[in-house]
Specification:
The protein has an eight-stranded parallel beta barrel, surrounded by six helices. Strands 11, 13, 16, 19, 20 and 24 form a six-stranded mixed sheet that branches. The radius of gyration is 35 Å and the shape is elongated. It has four domains: 323 residues, Glycosidases (TIM Barrel, Alpha-Beta Barrel), CATH 3.20.20; 136 residues, Jelly Rolls; 131 residues, Sandwich (Jelly Rolls), CATH 2.60.120.260; 80 residues, Immunoglobulin-like (Sandwich). It has 697 residues and is an alpha+beta fold. The N terminus is likely disordered. The chain contains twelve helices and 42 strands.
Length: 697
């Protein structure tokens, strides 16, 4: 059968009437509970039809190698599976067929991934002869129900397929009635019980049901072998009030497609028409790469995830479309990163948002991937769940060929750490850098890494222990940026003040010539910085030469912008250091040399210094006795008591407009630049941060 006909067959049932529910299956429905011949969600109250995938026999490499979180995540993301089944292999002697610790590890992988993603999981005692060793089954289900019994998404399957007619239904029922009490000591969750003849005779079981209020009966089919006779048994069971669960089905003959390599999509669709009408849940057999037609993966494929159409068998492509069509009501939201077990390593590419960063090539889930091509303004954000309040450190795995960087770590918007480091020996040479101790709050938090430098980023790690310790002194970040409005010049030549028509609705300087200049008084940021200008030009442009106290600092080359009120921000390629404790004279000279009548209109100049991290504690009423008032070009500040620390004027964007040191004084005068609107006067000292608003019309 052609690929096209398979897709058409799957599409026949793709138009199921569903309503999108924002969330994942377990989040919406909660623990599953039988109610008559249906299975309903304890939380939603709705009849629940799950459609998903079964893993292969756990002990065999064709399927055992895929008991991996990458595979489970991929099946949830790509197939949109709402249930995963762990088929834990049991030998003909009734004992675990594989290594015991390995089998429990495979269960943990499937259940933990499913739980993290909010989908259901089945722990299946995958046996044909379970009755041979009831004690082994009791031990197994005692262990898994103790560990997972309170997980609302876990389902227990007691006996995969009782072999042919080896066991009667009364014998199977007696076995179940020995195992169920073992589980019920630890869990109220749904239990699945296999039926006679490879889990086909559900009608017989419905006539003599098990006395437990949360048991469903297992029906298995293979579409090439089982048709109307078996669906008739299912109808009888439902009519008798027995809830059914198809925990295993295949598109092939009952041998799994080892001899007859055909798949039977029409017969499969007929089965699903019946299951859809009765809201019966199912898992396809299976996630494996064995050379049989029921396998979803091509023989020998070793990729754990990222499967393309060419990696899937015809059955795999058909099944994927069928499973997807039945789970459109769920959003399958990716979960927040869980750092319950600290240290919790979080890969850099697991961001929820980023700016000015690229992800290195590689498959999804490849832990060698990293964030690269950063800028100093780059950042990445992560959603993390922390189970309880911790005191610990944040470690970053980074590599850089630059001289240095100092990334800033924020939790829920609050700066908690600044981690400085130098050249690691090159972009491909990585080092782990660690913060000072920080307090990490409990619950869902947003972690943000502001680069404040350029580096490649591999992962970060939160390490810590439970604590009741109070928050450390608050760390604040302010952006040392000063904007000077062009129309606020204290002196100028050959310039005309006019309305800018720019988005900030301020004035500008226009009608500029080769001899134009303007001077400004300002308290500039300190440290390494650049200059940006907001300009418009209907001519060929010009060069703006910026000097501070007579010393040349930057030349900003401006090309025509297409109009005298077509504004553009241009940043100088030069950077420079400033270390001024007092007000400075900033001068702008227009230079062109071509004799144009008008050159470049100027809206504003902006000095962009490095971010500054401030430590302090804010407390209610901290501003009592703290007053500030304008006195011409200065600000008079009364601290209310002797104060030692830093006095600042900061605008509402966090830019420091003015700053000075104070040593044991009760009042101080702060020379301030020209600004308009509201700003904050802040006193940053050992006893915390105090602030009061000031307004300048």
């Amino acid at each position: 059968m052609s690929r096209r006909s398979l897709l058409v067959a799957a599409a026949l049932v793709g138009g199921l009437a569903t309503t999108l529910q924002a969330g994942n299956p377990v989040d919406i429905h909660g623990r599953l509970q039988t109610q008559g011949n249906r299975i309903v969600g304890e939380k939603s109250g709705d009849t629940v039809q799950l459609t998903g995938m079964s893993f292969f026999w756990s002990q065999w490499p064709e399927g055992g190698n895929f008991y991996n979180a990458k595979t489970a995540d991929w099946v949830i993301d790509d197939f949109r599976a709402s249930v995963l089944r762990a088929a834990i292999g049991v030998g003909d002697d009734g004992k675990l067929a594989g290594d015991s610790s390995g089998s429990y590890g495979q269960i943990e992988t499937v259940v933990s991934t499913a739980s993290r993603r909010g989908v259901y999981s089945i722990i299946d005692w995958h046996s044909h002869y379970a009755i041979k060793n009831v004690a082994a089954a009791k031990t197994f289900f005692d262990n898994v129900s103790k560990k997972y019994g309170n997980n609302p998404g876990v389902i227990f399957e007691l006996f995969n397929e009782p072999w042919a007619n080896v066991y009667t239904w009364p014998e199977i029922k007696a076995y179940a009635e020995e195992i169920i009490p073992v589980i019920r000591k630890n869990s109220k969750n749904l239990i699945l019980v296999g039926t006679r003849q490879w889990s086909r005779d559900v009608d017989e079981a419905s006539l003599d049901p098990i006395k437990d209020d949360n048991v469903a009966y297992v029906l298995h089919f293979y579409a090439g072998s089982h048709r109307d006779t078996l669906t008739a048994r299912g109808r009888t069971a439902l009519a008798n009030g027995a809830p059914l669960f198809v925990s295993e089905w295949g598109t092939t003959n009952e041998d799994g497609g080892t001899v007859d390599k055909e798949i039977y999509p029409e017969a499969t669709n007929a089965w699903f028409a019946w299951m859809d009408s009765n809201k019966i849940s199912s898992c396809n057999w299976s996630i494996q790469n064995k050379a049989e037609a029921s396998a979803i993966l091509k023989a020998g494929l070793t990729k754990l995830s990222g499967w393309s159409d060419s990696d899937l068998t015809p059955s795999g492509r058909f099944v994927r479309d069928l499973v997807r069509a039945r789970n459109t009501q769920y959003t399958f939201d990716p979960p927040p990163i869980d750092s319950n077990a600290l240290p919790g390593r979080i890969q850099a590419e697991a961001f929820t948002a980023k700016n000015e960063l690229d992800v290195s090539p590689g498959e999804a889930g490849d832990e060698s991937r990293r964030l690269m091509n950063s800028q100093t303004t780059s950042w990445a954000e992560y959603d993390v769940t922390v189970p309880f309040r911790k005191k610990g450190v944040v470690a970053l795995r980074v590599g850089t060929g630059m001289d240095s960087a100092a990334p800033i770590v924020k939790i829920n918007g609050k700066v908690v750490a600044k981690i400085g480091f130098k050249n690691t020996g090159g972009w491909s040479s990585y080092a782990t850098v660690v913060s000072d101790s920080v307090i990490i709050p409990a619950g869902q938090i947003k972690v943000r890494i502001d680069y404040n430098g350029q580096f490649d980023f591999d992962w970060f790690e939160i390490t810590g222990r439970r604590t009741t310790e109070a928050d450390p002194p608050q760390i604040d970040t302010v952006h040392q940026t000063l904007r000077i409005e062009a129309e606020d010049a204290v002196a100028s030549k050959s310039l005309t003040k006019e309305s800018s028509g720019d988005e900030d609705a301020t004035g500008s300087m226009g009608y500029t010539t080769d001899s134009s200049w303007a001077e400004y008084k300002a308290l500039l940021p300190q440290g390494r910085q650049t200059v940006a200008v907001r300009v418009a030009s209907g001519s060929e442009g010009a060069t703006l030469k910026i000097s501070v106290n007579g010393a040349a600092k930057a030349n900003v080359k401006v090309a025509g912008t297409g109009g005298w009120q077509t504004w553009k921000t241009v940043v100088a390629t030069d950077s420079f250091d400033l270390d001024l404790s007092d007000s400075a004279t900033v001068r702008v000279d227009w230079e062109e040399g071509k004799g144009q009548s008008s050159l470049v209109n100027l809206n504003w100049i902006e000095f962009r210094g490095p971010d500054k991290v401030i430590v302090g504690v804010r407390s209610p009423g901290a501003a009592r006795g703290f007053r500030a008032r304008m006195a011409g070009s200065s600000m008079d500040v009364d601290f209310g008591a002797s104060f030692a620390g830093t006095l600042q004027l900061v605008d509402l964007q966090g830019r420091i407009l003015a700053e000075r040191k104070v040593s044991g004084e009760s009042s101080a005068r702060l020379l301030v630049p020209v600004w308009k609107g509201v700003a904050m006067v802040r006193a940053v000292g050992l006893d915390g941060i105090r602030s009061v608003p000031v307004f300048r019309p």
